[in-house]
Each structure stands twice: as structure tokens, then as C-alpha cells.
Amino acid sequence: MGLAVIGYLLLALTGGWMWVKRFTAQHPRPGWLRVLHLTLGFILASLVLLLLGIGIVGTLGHFGRLGHSIHLPVGLAVVGLTLLSAWSAVQISPAKPWARTLHLTMNLCLGVALTLAGLTGWDVVQKYLPR
Questions:
Q1: What pLDDT shows up at residue 41?
Q2: Based on the structure, what is the number of domains in the chain?
Q3: Exposure string (b/e) for 58-72, b if CB count within 10 Å is 16 or more?
Q4: Radius of gyration of the chain, Cα coordinates, nearest whole angstrom
Q5: Which terminal Cβ of the chain has fewer Cβ within 10 Å, N or C?
Q6: Which structural domain, as residue segments, surrounds residue 15?
């Protein structure tokens, strides 16, 4: 989860940098910046899917069922927002101005959802630890 949060923060940094460069014509954005942003996004999406798999397998293995905490719907929201953000990212073009707005909105919601997932996940992890 910590790596996902670091990935999200790095994406916010590179995305913010691209946003600033978009409006300052004096200094166009470096060509590698978009590639870095897309690569980080792919890594975050992969990591979120990996965390989903680990969470489901671990919870089923330990408890025998899912849905015993609020962490499941929060985690599913993180997965959905991440995938929707990734999809909207590849839609961004001059012909689709709505895609950038959708991408930014999903990322803001994703930040809230990641925070909630971290908080609710802490409760779940405490149930795994021996007392």
C-alpha cells in the first residue's frame, strides 16, 4: 500500500508539472515527462491490481469469506477509480477535451479513496496479527 501511495504522489507531481508546462509556452514540457507519467500510471494500475489479488486471497485464506469490513468496498473503489483514470488518460487528445477533466477528477477521488483504503486497511491488518 505504501508503494501505491508513493506512486500516486509521484503521479501527482509529474501530472502537476505537465499541467504547469501546458500553460507556460515559454518553457515547453520535456518529451520524457509524459512517458514517465504514463509509465508511473501503468505501474500504479498494476500495483493496485496486485494488491487486490493479495487482499482477496489473503482474506479468503484467513477468514474464509470476504466482506467482513468496510475495506472491501473502499478497495474496490480504489481499483475502479484507478482503472477509470488509466482509461481516461489514454483518451486525452484535442478531439476529446472531456477526457482530461475526467482524468483529473478521477485522480482527486482516487487520492481520497487511497487515504480511506490506508485507514481501513490498517484495521484489517490488525486482525491478522497475533495477539
A1: 97
A2: 1
A3: ebeeeeeeeeebebb
A4: 17
A5: C
A6: 2-128
